[in-house]
Amino acid sequence: MNLNLKFTTDYRQFYLNDKNANVNTGSENFWSERAFADKLAVEDGVLGIGIENDEGKVECEFEILNSKSLIDNFNGFDHVVEASLKIHSGIVQILDCPNSEVEMETQIENGEYRVRVYSINLKTAYEQNPNDTYKIEMWKEAYSERKVLKRFEN
């Protein structure tokens, strides 16, 4: 499954979560200093994905893979980070912030997933017409800690 999404959000973030996740995305533990630096906040059942532009424009490709991502060359990306997400409800969602409007919802098998977020064109985020875009891949994999695979340096 591959979807292209365009929506607006606030506070330079949006969420990928299990439909029944019950977490406080406003807690200090969610958006810690490390989470801001890594552009990815992690709690049980929800990931907060940081965007670069101040206008709240999100252009995002979302794909559920049958196996681990084959992308291992990150030259075309500015920042790449991944973390695990547990799905209990059989439904994964993408929500805006702060209204939690559902931007995408699809059925998925329950279990542990690895989610990789690719950030592209981050240097354009502060131009008059920001062109930062995001790619999210998700596949079944045992739980492991958040890991930055390529860090964006301003």
CATH superfamily: Competence, DNA-entry nuclease inhibitor, ComJ
Helix content: under 10%
CATH C-level class is: Mainly Beta
Mean pLDDT: 95
Helix-and-strand structural type = mainly beta
Largest sheet: 6 strands, mixed
Please indicate the count of domains: 1
Strand content: over 45%
Principal-axis shape = globular
The first-to-last residue Cα distance is 33 Å
Gross CATH architecture:
Sandwich
**DSSP helical segment count:** 1
Strand order of the largest sheet: 1-5-10-9-6-11
State the order of secondary-structure elements, H for helix, E for strand: EEHEEEEEEEEE
**Ranges with pLDDT <50 over ≥5 residues?**
none
Q: How many strand elements?
A: 11
Radius of gyration: 14 Å
Q: Give me the CATH fold name.
A: Substrate Binding Domain Of DNAk, Chain A, domain 1
Outline:
By secondary structure, this protein is mainly β. 4% of the residues lie in helices and 47% in strands.
From the structure above, extract its key features:
Substrate Binding Domain Of DNAk, Chain A, domain 1, globular
Give an overview in words.
By secondary structure, the chain is mostly beta strands. The protein has a single domain (2-150), classed as Substrate Binding Domain Of DNAk, Chain A, domain 1 (Sandwich), CATH 2.60.34.30. Helices cover 4% and strands 47% of the residues. It has one helix and eleven strands. It has one helix at 33-38, and strands at residues 2-8, 13-18, 40-43, 46-50, 57-64, 79-87, 91-95, 102-107, 111-120, 133-140, 147-150. The strands form two sheets. A six-stranded mixed β-sheet has the order 1-5-10-9-6-11, with no helix packed on it. A five-stranded antiparallel β-sheet has the order 3-4-2-7-8. Strand 3 and strand 4 (46-50) form a beta hairpin. The relative contact order is 0.27. The model has no long low-confidence stretch (mean pLDDT 95).
